[in-house]
Amino acid sequence: MRLGDDVDDYCSRCKFSSTHAVVSMAGEDVQKVRCRTCNHEHNYRKNKGGRGAMSKKEAFDKVLASVTGVMEESKKPAKK
After folding, report:
1. Could you say which of 23, 26, 44, 67 is the most buried, measured as most Cβ atoms within 10 Å of its Cβ?
2. Do residues 65 and 72 make contact, with C-beta atoms less than 8 angstroms apart?
3. Rounded to whole angstroms, how far apart are CA atoms 52 and 22?
4. What strands, in cross-sheet order, belong to the sheet with 41-43?
5. What residue segments make up the domains of the chain, in order of their start?
6. All residues at 6 or more sequence positions from 14 whose CB lies less than 8 Å from its CB, including other chains
7. What is the C-alpha separation between 61 and 30, in angstroms, rounded?
8. How far is residue 7 from each of residues 3, 11, 52, 79, measured CA to CA in Å?
9. pLDDT, tens only, 56-76
10. For residue 39, what are the contacts with CB-CB under 8 A and spacing of at least 6?
11. pTM score above 0.85
């Protein structure tokens, strides 16, 4: 790995894994990268980050809530 090389990493701004350019190294280890999609510079995450895949139930509940406008009881804000 050298400065300017391409590496895949998770971008916290784009919210997905994409191609990044290496901008900072400490010895042989990559420290910082810049997203080639949005130009956001961040620490190298070794392509780990973001949320894991959504379960079928979570996906169904999300779609249902967007259609009906009703939230699940456990996700409703607490009343004062």
Report:
1. 44
2. yes
3. 25
4. 6-11, 16-26, 29-35, 41-43
5. 6-71
6. 35, 37, 38, 40
7. 39
8. 11, 12, 21, 47
9. 888 888 888 888 776 555 555
10. none
11. no
Which residue do the tokens 């400065």 mark? 3
The owner of tokens 């809530």 is 65
Q: Residue 45 corresponds to which amino acid? A: R
E strands in the chain? 6-11, 16-26, 29-35, 41-43
Measured CA to CA, the distance from residue 56 to residue 69 in angstroms comes to 19
Spatial contact of 41 and 52, defined as CB atoms under 8 Å apart? no
Q: Which residue has the tokens 């916290």?
A: 12
Question: Residue 14 and residue 28: Cα distance in Å, rounded?
Answer: 27
